[in-house]
Amino acid sequence: MRRSALTALVVPLLAAGCAAPAYVSPVEVTRFVGPSPAYLGQGTIELVAGPGEAADSLEYSVYRDAVRRELEMLGYRVVAQNAQQVASVQFEDYVGDEIRRRGPVNVGVGGSTGSYGSGVGVGVGLDLTPRPAERILREISVAIRPAGGGTNLWEGRASMTATVNSDMADDRAAAARIADALFAGFPGNSGETIEVE
């Protein structure tokens, strides 16, 4: 087979074999409800950046705003100061590759000699297993406490993983989905971990 014919055969197969499927996990949510749940979901609340957060970063503001929308839907009035409660918001993300396997194309050359002649052969092996796409793990943590201090009234954490080729690779889409899951059925059962599709 001539080189051009081999290339014409291999290139479309590689394109088909290397496309990794998009993946979006369910959102895993864990919540803890304090001893005074009657105070939740009402009055004024101020959003503050959690410890170590870069409150002025664009990425963080996307997740903070998603939390703000959910709190407003619960019945809170979000204010900039002099609030009755404070919601501390933290966001983290991790990006990583799945374990890489060997390349998709293997070329072997073999030769033989003998009393009946000699020959050289070329073999092409194609591994069409889709390559894993890079994944992003995102997590939002929120703690609600009285503005004057004291025990947290509520704490929650929600996380999800999505590949970079999925719809949830976009920060705004991911933030809306995670925040929605975090506050679904608010305040939730204390200590319970659930998965939200």
Automatic annotation (TrEMBL):
Q: What residue stretch is flagged as signal peptide?
A: 1-24
The UniProt entry, under InterPro entries, shows:
DUF4136
Domain DUF4136 residue range list: 54-188
Superkingdom of origin? Bacteria
Q: Does the keyword rRNA-binding apply?
A: no
Q: Which UniProt keywords apply?
A: Signal
**Name the record gives this protein:** DUF4136 domain-containing protein
Species of origin: Aurantiacibacter spongiae
Q: What is the lineage of its organism?
A: Bacteria, Pseudomonadati, Pseudomonadota, Alphaproteobacteria, Sphingomonadales
